[in-house]
Specification:
The protein is globular, with a radius of gyration of 16 Å. The chain has helices at residues 51-54, 111-114, 133-139, 150-153, 161-167, 173-176; strands at 10-14, 27-34, 37-42, 46-50, 67-70, 74-84, 94-98, 101-104, 119-129, 143-147. It is built from six helices and ten strands, in the order E-E-E-E-H-E-E-E-E-H-E-H-E-H-H-H. The chain is an alpha+beta fold.
Length: 186
Amino acid sequence: MTEVTSLTGRLLVATPTLTDPNFDRAVVLLLDHDEEGSLGIVLNRPTPVDVGDVLEPWAALAGEPGVVFQGGPVSLDAALGVAVIPGSEGPLGWRRVHGAIGLVDLEAPPELLAAELGSLRIFAGYAGWGPGQLENELEEGAWYVVESEPGDVFAPEPERLWRSVLRRQRSELAMVATYPDDPSLN
């Protein structure tokens, strides 16, 4: 069996040639990646649904924009809370994923985390890959893999995240940020 190098905490940035509409210009934060598969959330798909409409107790803690994000095409009826909590120890109800980024137990009382939360964003659904599936997509050139920054999860203008993540790369990937939305109009 081939050893899988964990990409947990890294970003998958959709290449301009990725044709799956679920991932067009998507930026995915990988929350888990091992030999059993991968799980991530799409960071740049805000919905018009206010957090207060679906998770009222968490609405006051959600960062701007205070809407639910579509985390991926899988299990859209399930919610994931992602938060930044600085320091080495997180509070009860929070599990570190990478660096200061972690998952919030949305079943826990919000007051358990309120004092320590740096930022919170709510995602409906997730992106998932079975064993070897993501590795195949990477070999096919569907994704760029880049380092994440804590601010990526909470980008104030999520619709610009794809271009801004590519633009900050110190390689030819920075040029991909200028790729037109519709190359046929070029």
